[in-house]
Specification:
heterodimer, A: mainly alpha, 2 domains, flat, B: mainly alpha, 4 helices
Chain lengths: ~140, ~110
């Protein structure tokens, strides 16, 4: 997946794309007096609002981080920064964007029933098995 | 003269060309979703096939997001009038866009985003 910067950028871009595509669909529906509008769906509207909130939180946190980096003072004679606080922002703030984005399509396509939950549990188990197999082969060679 | 036996009444287009679409949808409700699936499949598979021929590799996630957007546009057009597309299908198309975006952006390197 790469570095923290890559992950942060990806999550932010996912959130921005979601807002753009849903905003376009909502705007299209209202401009053309569409009979079917995706704002008729309560969950999607909630998701739209949540993602906007996530991104605006990220924006204000980024501004705070930038300000704190600019305002950092290093005392003469000290070679270490006093705190790593300015660099602790980013991924933790935008992970909720990823969760929201993944949860809505999952719920809309697969529903809230348990059928696909079973499927994904088994699929995850297979992935885990493969992962364990790779680990084993890396450590011990081919059995 | 022998008339052919049609499966359903032929649409009457005197009230407008869109009557053909709406009457076909009335008889066969899966008509519009199949059109959307066709658009997605043509763009996704066609793009992958051509890119593989031209460059040797194919960018699956990029073609998935392009095909999703290409599907969203006719889906929005179908949503303007009643009877073509249900809200469920429209939301599934939007959801496909979001899933493609997740795949696409997590697949990129920082220099490519």
């Amino acid at each position: 997946m790469g570095s923290q910067i890559t992950l942060t950028m990806s999550l932010i871009m996912i959130g921005l794309f979601s807002i753009a595509i849903i905003g376009f669909a909502v705007g299209f529906a209202s401009d053309n007096d569409a009979v079917m509008s995706i704002t008729d769906d309560a969950e999607l509207s909630t998701f739209y609002t949540n993602t906007k909130t996530n991104l605006s939180t990220t924006k204000s946190n980024s501004e705070g981080t930038y300000a704190s980096i600019i305002d950092t003072t290093v005392e003469p004679g000290s070679d270490v920064a006093q705190s790593a606080g300015p660099f602790a922002v980013s991924v933790s703030n935008v992970v909720s964007v990823g969760k929201n984005v993944i949860f809505l399509p999952y719920q809309k396509i697969f529903g809230s029933g348990s059928g696909f939950g079973i499927f994904f549990t088994i699929f995850g188990a297979v992935i885990l098995f493969l992962f364990a197999l790779y680990l084993y082969k890396t450590l011990r060679g081919n059995p | 003269m022998v008339f052919l036996a049609y499966l359903y009444e032929l649409p009457n287009a005197t009230s407008g060309a869109d009557a053909i679409l709406s009457e076909t949808t009335n008889v066969f409700p899966a008509f519009v979703p199949l059109i959307l699936f066709f658009v997605f499949g043509v763009v996704f598979l066609g793009g992958i096939a051509r890119q593989r021929v031209r460059t040797g590799t194919a960018d699956y996630s990029a073609w998935a997001i392009i095909a999703s957007i290409a599907t969203l546009l006719p889906a929005l057009l179908f949503s303007v009038s009643a009877g073509y597309i249900r809200l469920d299908w429209l939301i599934i198309v939007v959801s496909m866009n979001l899933l493609s975006a997740v795949w696409f952006f997590l697949d990129r390197k920082i220099s490519e985003v």
